[in-house]
Amino acid sequence: MTSRPLVITDCDEVLLHMVRHFRDWLDEEHDVDFALEGNVFLQAMRRRGSDKAMSEEQVWELLGGFFDTEMGRQTPIEGSINAIAELQREADVVVLTNLVDKRNEARTNQLRDLGIAAPVYTNQGPKGGAVSRIITEFQPSRAVFIDDIAQHHASAAAEVPHINRLHFCGEPAIAPHIPCAHEAGHADARIDNWREALPWLLETLHGEP
After folding, report:
1. What angle, rounded to 10 degrees, do the helices at 56-69 and 19-30 form?
2. What tens digit of pLDDT does each residue of 30-50 get?
3. pTM beyond 0.85, yes or no
4. Does CATH place domain 6-17+76-206 in 3.40.50.150?
5. 136 beta partners
6. Rounded distance, CA 190 to CA 148, Å?
7. pLDDT score for 38
8. Which of 87, 123, 135, 187 pairs with 159 at a CA distance of 20 to 30 A?
9. Phi, psi at residue 174, to the nearest 5°?
């Protein structure tokens, strides 16, 4: 029996909005201003009344607090739920998310409650190694990796060069400002909406090699 194609997709800014809800939470609960547009993530936050960037440790502490208590705020990227359902007719779909392992169950439940029932793999750091392990586990006939961060595409390209790669960022506030993996040569395409991404994915999964 021939194995099915495989889609390995990120979650935040691909399936679900995150930074817009993180920004609102920082504003409401922590008196922190988070300037999304065009700012390096770790330099985009300022405590109200201060012009000093927050430390990396402080930023990671706030991010952890958000994922511990505020995942219920997150809303789907337009079209993501239906797109994943359509892809699951044609392929296996797994979610590869950069959260610590203790949050795997919460992410799995969050996605299931929104209508996406899929295995979740948690990871820290570049994703190429995790992509390689998932490919080894599933042995797919063909595979596509979707992520919003260019460095993960570079890592996947280095570790699993034969996998197809789609750079996708569904948050309009940051999409124009992030480094583009397609321009860098590490992704096969850059598409930031599911209306156009779904046909590309289906063609890539089932088209001519």
Report:
1. 100
2. 999 888 765 567 778 888 888
3. yes
4. no
5. none
6. 9
7. 56
8. 87
9. -115, -20
